[in-house]
Write a structure and sequence with these properties.
The protein is mainly β and 119 residues long. It has no helices and eleven strands. Helices cover 0% and strands 61% of the residues. Strands 2, 4, 5, 6, 9, 10 and 11 form a seven-stranded mixed sheet that branches. The protein has a four-stranded antiparallel sheet with strand order 1-3-8-7, with no helix packed on it. The protein is elongated, with a radius of gyration of 14 Å.
Length: 119
């Protein structure tokens, strides 16, 4: 069984910063991709940032230049450094991974962490 434990959400004023972390545990062979999604009230879940195990990253246009994704392959952790936060960044943020488990590639979601940006 694989578990994802997220931390780092909270309340911050516009222009502030937060750092989200997600740690994966379990019998994991490798994690090709680690991602952060978010879902605001009344909106669909959207991909915020992703990073492959080789370090290639992609970002949603709305967060480019403000958010940075990073991962520690040895610890199966992924972080999201969020700077210059805006009220529109308010959402529940979810960690998502695709992991090789017993020869199969399986998706897993974290429980979500609330990020609230006040104006």
């Amino acid at each position: 069984q694989v578990q994802l434990v997220e931390s780092g959400g909270g309340l911050v004023q516009a222009g502030g910063s937060l750092r989200l972390s997600c740690a994966a545990s379990g019998t994991i062979s490798s994690i090709p991709v680690m991602e952060w999604y978010r879902q605001a009230p009344g909106k669909q879940r959207e991909l915020v940032a992703s990073q492959t195990k080789f370090g290639s990253s992609n970002y949603a246009d709305s967060v480019k230049g403000r958010f940075t994704i990073s991962r520690d392959n040895a610890k199966n952790t992924v972080h999201l450094q969020m700077n210059s936060l805006k009220p529109e960044d308010t959402a529940v943020y979810y960690c998502h991974i695709q992991a090789w488990i017993s020869g199969m590639l399986r998706p897993y979601w974290g429980q979500g962490t609330q990020v609230t940006v006040s104006s």
